[in-house]
Structures are given as C-alpha cells and as structure tokens.
Amino acid sequence: MENIKKIVREKYSEIAKQTKEQNAPSCCGATSCGSVVDYSIFSENYDNLEGYNPDADLGLGCGLPTEFAGIKPGNSVLDLGSGAGNDCFVARALVGESGYVAGIDFTEAMNEKARENARKLGFTNVDFIQGDIENIPVKFGVVDVVISNCVLNLVPDKHKAFSEINRVLKQGGHFCISDVVIQGELPKDLKKDAIMYAGCVSGALPRETYLGIIREAGFINVEVKKEKKIELPDDLLLQYISNDDLLKFKSGETGIFSITVTGEKPASCGCGGCC
Description:
By secondary structure, the protein is α/β, with parallel strands linked by helices.
C-alpha cells in the first residue's frame, strides 16, 4: 500500500506542473501510461458552472460532484483530493461568502497550485491542506458536505476512507462523490500494474463492492445519480492482454464506468445523544 501511495504522490506531483492540455493525452493525466488514453473520455465539461476557473482545471475528474451535492449557502464543504482547486471553487460559488470550503490533497505541489489560484481569485474562505484521505486531518462532525472527484479509486484502503468521511461529517450531513468502478473482471496484468493504478483504472473496485463499502461505513440513502461507460482504447488494453483476450474482453459483460454517488450520515447515531 505504501508503494502505491508513493507512486500516486510522484505521478500527481508531476501532473501538478502541467496544464490541462498537457495532461489530456494520457490516462488520468499520468504521462507514464504511454500517452494512449485521451482523458476527455473520463472528464466532464465545467464551462457553464458558476465558479469554474480554467486555471484550476487539470482535466483529472470523471464527473461533476457538485451537481448532485445539494450544497447550500453557508455550508462547510470538504473536497477530498482537491488538486488545483477546481471543484473547491465551484463549491465556493454555492456556499457564498458565509460558507467555507476546504480541499485536502496528498500532494503538496497540488496544494501550492490551488493556494495560488485562490490568492488570484481573492478568496478568504477557501483553504487547502496536505493530508491523507485514510486519515483526514479534520475534527469529528464539523462538515456539512463532502465531495470528491475521481480520487477514492486511488486510495488503497477504501474502507478506511469512507469511515473517515463518516467521521468528519455532521450528523445528517452527506457526500457526493464521482469515481471510477468496474463491472466484471479486469485483465489480471492490468489490475497488477501500479502505474495504471495511478491512472485510475486498476485501483477501481467492482461497482457493487464499492457501494457495499459505503453502506458498511454507516451511510444511508446511498444512490448512484449518474453513470457513464468508459471505453479504453484497444492499443492500451493490448499492452496487457492478447488479441484473442481483447475480443473476449470487449464482447463480455466487463466494463469500466464513472459513477456519481451520494449518501447520508444518519441524523442520529441511535445512542440517545451520547455522541
């Protein structure tokens, strides 16, 4: 797991120094994937969203988590894996001057880029913190809404990650997360490739396993709001499987999907108010 974290930190430190256009011809922006995946097959269009700042968009998302997050003026919002601040700035437009947005990223180079973007925009209620999603540096029960965009698939211990999301949310708070999941079985060699893990693919869990982890963490009303199938190019898959296996792979039920899922922390823990 530590090796995976090291690879993710190194790759996203590299990505932080690049523009959206430089990141585009690669899987999740990770240039080591052979420049064979156009990341636009994952990402969504932000152009019409209030608060969108092109300088903060590195093209690394796989959804629009703020679209279904139910963010209200005055809310406190936490973005996990905030990158250069793209979703934080969209969330800030929703919470307004009376709200607060914090972004947490594993990579200090990303945080530096996000802070510079926030300074240019003159925001005083948006902060960026370095931290690990498996051990979120935020107090118990202080956040109204947690968002995240194509990041949880990079976290080795997803049980711990969703447990931490539950911990930092207020009772009755909720999350909206866009992420990559799979249906069926990915090629064995692709699943073992650590670089493809940093490219958002081999770290993805089966859809029902992913949703099961969310429910096990104590969330209720778990709902997939949006789903989109992602087609990986043949030349990428052929790095891991034979031509014959490629035909079987593409004709079977296996698929890679981006989903946007929501869930709520119960308004009462059922302990009579002891917590």
